[in-house]
Amino acid sequence: MEETAAAYVAVLRALSRVETLDVLVVEYPAERGRGVVGGDIAARRQRFRAAVHAEAEAHRYPFLANAETLGDNSAFVTEDGFHLSGAGHARLGRAVAEAVHGRLAGGVPVVPAGGRADSQPPRA
């Protein structure tokens, strides 16, 4: 999981080099259920989460935490413990839309300062 965290951190650093890009980091739900194996998966996941969250904060990217979106509701994941159910996808979609609308309402410019009128709007 440390290699995966390093890859996520590298992606966030690369994205931070694009000044006109607005990023929303969305945490996926914790793995659970009978398909999950590995004695220390919770500890490894916590280290992964901490590394990605710290990098998001370093670049002032908002971090949409799993607890804020899906919590511990088993209806939001399929039986395998890894994938989102239809209800989970719907809830996550609403949370992402709310976060993006909140960013826009909070003054994230559609055309960055000094940007051209044909600049792309911020992407989440």
Task: Quickly describe the structure.
The protein has 124 residues and is mostly helical. Helix content is 46%, strand content 3%. It has a single domain, classed as Rossmann fold (3-Layer(aba) Sandwich).
Description:
With 124 residues, the chain is mainly α. The protein has a single domain (2-105), classed as SGNH hydrolase (Rossmann fold, 3-Layer(aba) Sandwich). Helices cover 46% and strands 3% of the residues. The protein is built from four helices and two strands, in the order αβαβαα. It has a two-stranded parallel sheet. α2 links the parallel β1 and β2 (63-64). α1 (2-16) packs parallel to α2 (41-58). The protein is flat.
Going by CATH, the homologous superfamily would be: SGNH hydrolase
Largest sheet, in brief, is: 2 strands, parallel
Which structural class is indicated by helix and strand composition? Answer: mainly alpha
Tell me the Rg in angstroms: 16 Å
CATH class: Alpha Beta
The level of helicity is 40-55%
Blueprint (SSEs and pairs):
Layout: H1 2-16, E1 25-26, H2 41-58, E2 63-64, H3 66-69, H4 86-105
Parallel strand pairs: 1-2
Relevant terms:
2 strands, about 5% strand, single chain, flat, Rossmann fold, disordered C terminus, mainly alpha, 4 helices, about 120 residues, two-stranded parallel ribbon
